[in-house]
Amino acid sequence: MAKSRQAPVDYVAPMDVLRDQDTASRRATLSRILKTFRRRAGLRSIEAARAMGKGLRTYQRWESGYYGLQLEEIHRFAEIVHADPWGIVFAVEFGSVDFALATAQNNAASLMLVALRRFHRKTPEAIRVLDPRSLSLTFTRGFDLLAKRAEEYEADLEQWMFDEGLSAAEPDDADD
After folding, report:
1. Which residue has the higher pLDDT, 172 or 86?
2. SS (H, E, C) 50-106
3. Whether the Cβ atoms of residue 58 and residue 67 lie closer than 8 Å to each other
């Protein structure tokens, strides 16, 4: 009888929460994202194909999602249309065109990866020794802080726009 191999006691099965869509859904999301950004950039398919160094038919197949996620191609495309390449990748996995659009201007997804890379370079062993619960709690707290900052920013912006000093007419100089 063969001895069964058991996982160590502290083993936690990897979470596969991002893979809740099938390949066809991810490709359809990718296609919508690529077309949206191309159109927002004011490019026709032939212009985007030229900018990427592709033939028109190859580009059209790529834009249709036929080839799936290709990181080098996504990065080249994002540079052309001024988008966050990692925002596009994450958006495909999330099934959310809106996420790609939201990160296009501020590069939020790329900045998150930069922060993770800096963390790893500064303390290379830390990521290995942290447990999934600690990581999840820390990431959740960080994103909660970002949500709070976004709310504060919106409130500050609204206050600024309706500030009496900006909306009131210039006072008359009666003393002239």
Report:
1. 86
2. HHHCCCHHHHHHHHCCCCCCCHHHHHHHHHHHCCCHHHHHHHHHHCCHHHHHHHCCC
3. no
- Cβ pair 87, 104 in contact under 8 A: yes
Burial label for 145, CB within 10 Å (0-12, 13-18, 19+), is: exposed
Residue 11 reports pLDDT greater than 50: no
Opening angle at CA 105, ends 104 and 107, nearest 5: 70
Amino acid identity at 37: F
Q: Which residues touch 164 (CB under 8 Å, ≥6 apart)?
A: none
**Cα angle value 135/74/149 (rounded, 5°):** 45
Stretch among 38-47, 113-122, 136-145, 152-161 having the lowest mean pLDDT: 152-161
Tokens 């939201």 -> residue: 102
So what's the pLDDT on residue 173?
53
Query: Which pTM value belongs to this model?
Result: 0.77
- Count other Cβ atoms within 10 Å, centred on residue 78: 22
